[in-house]
Amino acid sequence: MKIEVLGTGCSKCLYLEKEAREAVARAGITATVEHVFDLQEIIRRGVFSTPALAIDGEIVLSGRVAASDEILSLIKKRS
To answer: What number of H helices and E strands is found in the chain?
Structure first.
């Protein structure tokens, strides 16, 4: 599983990345968590409000921060 945080590096984006990493650890799965900082790539993927979260290439959250519990739920739906 590949989880991506899309955002330019603001505090909300960094917090979402931290929560995503925590959710992966709690899920006990093998997954990579990456942060996409490139604005052109973020726009190319159809995200106009950051932070955003993608799981296996699908944008599942945009324009807000989610706690690790919510991210864990999103991960479980796709496992």
So the answer is: 3, 4
User: What's the pTM value of the predicted model, to 2 decimals?
Assistant: 0.94
Whether the pLDDT of residue 25 is over 90: the answer is yes
Q: Which residues contact 62 (CB under 8 A, 6 or more apart)?
A: 47, 48, 49, 50, 51, 52, 53
Active site residues: 10, 13
- Distance in angstroms (rounded) separating the CA atoms of residues 63 and 47: 9
Q: Please, are residues 31 and 74 in contact by the beta-carbon 8 Å criterion?
A: no
Ordered structural domains, the chain, with CATH: 2-78 (3.40.30.10)
